[in-house]
Structures are given as structure tokens and as C-alpha cells.
């Protein structure tokens, strides 16, 4: 038993402060040194967490992109996928095969909560079908097509299939029949044609082959294993091949069972705390994609903000000791929706996009680029009670003569210093970002490892950002860490 009556605060959370892609993966990798267990709390394989790991043959760092497995897999320490995550079992199996090609074997390290829901083939099909329907009225969200929205909708509808169902084949097959029949009915009711239906499966095959190119090239999988057409009804009608689905899910389930990894993650957290050890909770996406507080309706379907960790993992907020927010030194966004601080000068935007390699880790889509948006980070810091900020990719801004910071928005004559609660304001074509402009710096900062060695203008830029963020917080947050390059050593703590 720990500490007489007081609740031990041994849980740290890392969360994104923008629209995802802030570079959380490498920060989690870094902060996981102090944690006994690292746990993903929300989202699914729509996330793409990039970490750089040492290739022992060449002695060089190589890029490893994780979508479901927590980034600390590279630290060979216990990791878990919590009940708030949606798991595509096929994707999970492929990801395990992928990390093995880097010399890591997550089996033995990994726990998966039986409450986590499964992303099924019908969810992936529905994701694309719904986007198709929305695009008719110019309202497509630009989802990752990983089936995330329909999988979370099934949870809310109480029809989702859980990891636990893998151990109950009768229930699994009944739910599979029901969910796939419902999806096909919906698609018929939406007026999808047979050609569109076939096209969805062809698109999924293409996407999966591209996403698993490394496994195909390494001859660990044949391209045929990513053929989604096998799941469509063989007579060409709008329906699924239920037999094929059941056969492949049974194989996937059998594989996952051999890992002996399905256990209550909430109890794992309890046992870790009982032993006096720390836990790191890994967020996916970012605050502006939060299903309630983000840039509605162009959001994801889960809760990336810190509170999402509590509901995703079955713990109370009293266990939380710190919440670290990760933000880029500028802003990026993929998918559709508002982007108040978008850089309008195409030369500058392209320069940052190329220098920062701003292409989606999950979909490969180019990310739109914007100036640092203070209202976004102010709101995100409040929603997640951020006590320390990590600024990533500061090095990308080196070389810009002038750098803008968006300090507020004006909408119909009204100034907003934080994200307006009425989403119509945020999405209004009349929204005007208000900028201040600072002088940039020219020095290469990729070898800087202390605040004091940063160029004065870079220090001024960061100090201005944090002061502006603090203007609207009831406490003072601080810059905790800065990254100046992709390698693990190109990241330093600020005193
Ligand atoms: P979904 O999560 O695939 O449904 O996509 C909903 C929105 O969230 C889209 O705009 C996606 O581009 C965006 N999104 C989802 N996951 C990520 C991520 O990890 N990084 C950046 N954007 C994301």
C-alpha cells in the first residue's frame, strides 16, 4: 500500500496541441525513459507516430512509423493499447511484422485491453462511402479512410465488436453479420451504385498495398494479402462476402491470441502504481481534432485531449502528475476544414512544407502549412491543463527573414483570443487572423543543445509565443523541451 490515504500522482500524459502531427512520437520515445509502462489512450491507426531508431548495420538513425503500437516499443519496455483505442486487427498484425523488420519484437511487451473496439472491414468501407456522400455537398472531412469514425460510431451505438469478442466466436460472428449487413443496407439507402461499391474495395486494396509496401518489398507478405475485393459480395451486389470475412478474422484472432496479450489495462495501471512506478500515457492526433472541442465538424471521432486519457483507460484525473503538450514551431493540418493561420504566400508555404517534410505519416498527403496559431495553443493548453510545452521542428524556421505569429482572430468585428465555442465563427469565411511579425534568424540551429545557444531572435520568438499563450491561462506554462532536428539527440530540455 502506498502513501497513507493520499493518491499517488504517478501518471504523465503527452498530448498534441494542434491538428496532430506535432511530433509526439519522438517526445514520447524520449519521455518514456522514466516510465515503467507506456499506454496509448485514444484513436486508432489514423495516427502516425514517427520515431528514429538506430540501424545497427549502418550505425545511422532510420525512420520507423507507428500507427497503433505505442512509440516506446523501440525502448523495449512494456506498452499497452487501452480500451479507448480502436484496433484494426489486420493493421495491428502487419504493424507487428513491420517493427520486427527493425529488430523489435513487441510480443511479450504488449498488453491490449479487452474493451478496445475493433475496426472492421465494414467500418473502412463506410468511412469511404460517407466521405463520398459528403463530397457531393462539398463537405468531405478528408478522413484517413482507416474506418475510425464508423468504428467510434458503433461504440456510441453499442454495436461495436470488442477485442474480448475474439474469445467468443459465436458472439463475434453474430456481431460481424449484423454490422456488415447494417453497413450494406446503409450504403444501399445512400444510393451507392454497384460500380461505386466495387471502387471502394479497389481503393482499399490500393491504399493497403501502399501502406504495407515495406512488407511486400521484404517479401514478408504478398500483395494478395491486401486484396480487399475478397471481402465484397462475389455477385457484384452491394454486400459483403461474410464467409471470407469470418475466415480471415478467425485467422487474425488466432494470431492475436497466440501473443497472450489481452488483459485489463486499467488493472495493469493499478499494479504499476501499486509498485510505485510511473506511467506515460500517449495521445494521438491533437486538440483541434478532438471530437468535442476541436474544429468541428472536421475532427476525428475520439478525444485526443488529456481528459481522453482518463476515459480511455479507466482512471481518474487525480492520478495525473503532469500533462505535456507538443506543438510544432509553426502549424500544419491535413484533411479539410478551417485553417485560420494558413500561410497565403505560396513560396513560403512550399518552402516550409518541403524543408519540414510535411507529408502525412499515415496517408502521405501533403500537409497545409500555417504560422504559429496562439488561439489554438492557448485553448489546447487550457483543455488539457498543460504544465509544460514541447516545441518541435524549430530548425525548420531557420532562414526566414520575418516570421508571423497569429495572436487572435477577428470575426464580424469581434476579437477572439481563444477558439470560439460556436464553430460557425471558426469556420466563417470572414474570419481574419491578426498577426504580429518578428525578425527571423539565419543560423543553422541543428547542433544547438541549450537555450542559451539559440540565436537571440529564436529565443525572442519562443518567449513571445509562451508569453502570449500564458496571457489566457490561470497558471504559467513553460517551454520544457525544444527539438531542432529529427534525431533523438537533437532535442534538449530547457531549464
Ligand atoms: P479520421 O480520424 O480518419 O476520421 O479523420 C478525421 C480528421 O482527422 C481528418 O481531417 C484527418 O486528416 C485528421 N487526422 C486523423 N488522424 C490524424 C493524425 O494522426 N494526424 C493529423 N491529422 C489526423
Task: Give me the secondary-structure topology.
Blueprint: E1 11-16, H1 24-31, E2 37-40, E3 49-55, E4 60-66, E5 79-81, E6 86-87, H2 89-100, E7 110-112, E8 117-118, H3 121-135, H4 148-157, H5 169-189, H6 194-211, H7 213-217, H8 242-258, H9 265-274, E9 279-282, H10 307-313, E10 320-328, E11 331-333, H11 346-355, E12 368-370, E13 372-373, H12 374-383, E14 388-392, E15 402-411, E16 414-416, H13 423-426, E17 432-439, H14 456-470, E18 478-483, E19 491-493
Parallel strand pairs: 1-9, 1-10, 2-5, 2-9, 5-7, 6-8, 10-14, 13-15, 14-18
Antiparallel strand pairs: 3-4, 11-12, 15-16, 15-17, 18-19
Helix pairs in contact: 3-4, 3-5, 3-6, 5-8, 12-14
The protein binds inosinic acid.
Inosinic acid is lined by residues 19-21, 46-48, 141-144, 146, 148-149, 284-285, 289, 298, 300-301, 334-335.
Number of helices in the DSSP assignment: 14
Helix content: 25-40%
Radius of gyration, whole Å: 23 Å
Catalogue the unreliable spans: none
Distance between the termini: 34 Å
Bound compounds, please? Answer: inosinic acid
Mean pLDDT: 95
Return the structural class: alpha/beta
Proportion of residues in β-strands: 15-25%
By DSSP, the count of extended strands is 19
Shape: globular
In what order do the strands lie side by side in the largest sheet?
A: 7-5-2-9-1-10-14-18-19
Main sheet overview: 9 strands, mixed
Outline of the structure:
This protein has 495 residues and is an alpha/beta fold. The protein has helices at residues 24-31, 89-100, 121-135, 148-157, 169-189, 194-211, 213-217, 242-258, 265-274, 307-313, 346-355, 374-383, 423-426, 456-470; strands at 11-16, 37-40, 49-55, 60-66, 79-81, 86-87, 110-112, 117-118, 279-282, 320-328, 331-333, 368-370, 372-373, 388-392, 402-411, 414-416, 432-439, 478-483, 491-493. The strands form 5 sheets. It has a 9-stranded mixed β-sheet with strand order 7-5-2-9-1-10-14-18-19, with helices on both faces.
